[in-house]
Amino acid sequence: MDNYAIEMLNITKRFPGIIANDNITLQLKKGEIHALLGENGAGKSTLMSVLFGLYQPEEGEIHKDGRKVVINNPNDANELGIGMVHQHFKLVECFSVLDNIILGVETTKNGFLQKGEARKKVLDLSEKYGLSVDPDALIEDITVGMQQRTEILKMLYRDNEILIFDEPTAVLTPQEIQELMTIMKNLASEGKSILFITHKLGEIMQVADRCSVLRKGKYIGTVDIKDTTPEKLSSMMVGRDVNFIVDKKECKPGEVVLDIENMTVASKRHKNNAVNGVSLQVRRGEIVCIAGIDGNGQTEFVYGLSGLEPLKGGKIVLNGQDVTNSSIRKRLTSGMSHIPEDRHKHGLVLDYSLEDNLVLQRYFEPEFTNKFGFLKRKAIREYANKLIDQYDVRSGQGPITKARSMSGGNQQKAIVAREIDKNPELLIAVQPTRGLDVGAIENVHKELVAQRDAGKGVLLVSLELDEVMNVSDRILVMYEGEIVGEFDPKTVTVEELGLYMAGSKRKEVNTND
Description:
Blueprint: E1 4-15, E2 18-29, E3 33-38, H1 44-51, E4 59-64, E5 67-69, H2 74-79, E6 82-85, H3 97-102, E7 108-109, E8 112-113, H4 115-128, H5 144-157, E9 162-166, H6 174-189, E10 193-197, H7 201-207, E11 210-215, E12 218-224, H8 230-238, E13 256-266, E14 273-283, E15 286-291, H9 298-306, E16 313-318, E17 321-322, H10 328-333, E18 336-339, H11 343-347, H12 354-358, H13 377-390, H14 408-421, E19 426-430, H15 438-453, E20 457-462, H16 465-471, E21 474-479, E22 482-487, H17 494-501
Parallel strand pairs: 3-10, 3-11, 6-9, 9-10, 15-20, 15-21, 18-19, 19-20
Antiparallel strand pairs: 1-2, 1-4, 4-5, 7-8, 11-12, 13-14, 13-16, 16-17, 21-22
C-alpha cells in the first residue's frame, strides 16, 4: 500500500444550485508535489477548502497518515500540520510581515508579546528556504511576490507538513514564478507534501510529480507527469482538444483610435515618475501589446489612461476627443472599455449580484433604467443571462449569485463579458487571462482578435510572454516608465524581448506607425 500523507475519500460538497465536489477521491503521497488541475469553477478551491476546514463536506471522509480525522475549522487543520496559501491572500495590510506570520500563534509572557524568538525563527526559516523578507515592512508596502512569501512563511512557522498552494502563480512575475518553483521543490525534498492548484500546464510539467484532474465537480483521473503531455492534460481538463496557437489573419490597421502624447504619471512610491513621457498610438484593426516586467509603470500607465489616476503631464485623445481631464464615466461612454488588472479592487463590487456587476457601467442607459430612474430588473436579468451563456460564466445561482462567492476565473470571465459586450471603440485589456484555464484563455484570445477584426483598437497589457507573442500585432516594451522598444512579434525573439524588458537594451521608438 502507498504511504499517503492525506486521503480525501468520496468527498461531496453542495452549495445552493450546484454540486461543487461530486464524490471526489484525492490521495497525496508523502514528499510529493501533487497538482490539482481543472477549469474555472471545476471545484478545486472548494476541495482544498474542505481539507483546510473552511467547508464541511456533506459526504466522505479525510484520512491523515492512514487514520480518519475530522477538520472542523482551520485551527484543526493547523494542528494536523495542514497549511494553505489562498488564491487571494489572507493578510492584514496594516500589520508588519512578522505580525502577520505569528498572528494566532503568538508567544506571550505576562500578557506581553515576545517577538524576539519569533523574529529569529522567521529569519532562520527565510534563509533556509530562500524566502527573503523584511519582517518589519508593512504588508501594504510590499510587492505581491513578497506577500506570497509571507503566506508561505506563515505555514512554515506553524511547522505545517501538508502545504496547499491555491493558484500561487496567478499574480506573480515570470521571475517570481521560477523562484516559487525552486522553493516548492526544496520543500518537497525536505519531506513536505504539497498540493498545488494551477491552470498553467507548463508549471505542472516543470514541478509536479502527479496530477489529478477535475471537471465540473467530478474526478476525471490522476496521471504521472513523466507519462503525460500538456495536450493530454488540457484534453482531460476541458473534455476537448485545445488549440494553443492563436488563429488570426494579417491585421489591417485603420485610422487612429487612441493617441497619447507625452503621458507622465507621478509615482506614489518614490520621487521619480512612474510613467515618464510616453507617447503611442493605437489604430483600429490592430492589437498593440505593452510588455514588461511587473512594476515598470504599466499599472500607473493604465490608471492614467482610464482615469483612475490624474496625469502629471501629457494628452490623451480618444476617437478624436480630448479626454485628458475627463471623468471615468465620460471616458467609458466615449468608447473605452477596461478589463482591469485587479478584479477585486477595480473590476467588481464583490457583495453585488452577478447581474448587477454585469450592468455596472450601463445601468443608467434607457435599456436598464426607466424615465423615473428605477432599474428595469427584468431587462437586467435577461441581459445577464445572455452574457452568462455566451461567455460560460459558471455560478451556483446564475444571475443572482453574489460575485464574492464565485471562483476567481469566473469572476474574470464576468468582467471580460461586460467589457467586450459594451462594443467599445478601444478595449484596454490588462492581464485579461489571469487565473483562467486553457479553454477560457483560448476563448478570450478569440474575442480579442474578433474585436480587432471588427475594426476596434485593442491595447493589451500582459506579463505572459506567450500571450504577448501570440496575440499582438505590435509589441511595445515598457521599462522604468518609458517605452524602450517596438517590435513585430513575427520577427522578434523571446530572448531579445527579455533583454529590453530587463533594461539591458533600448532603441529609439517610433510609436506612430
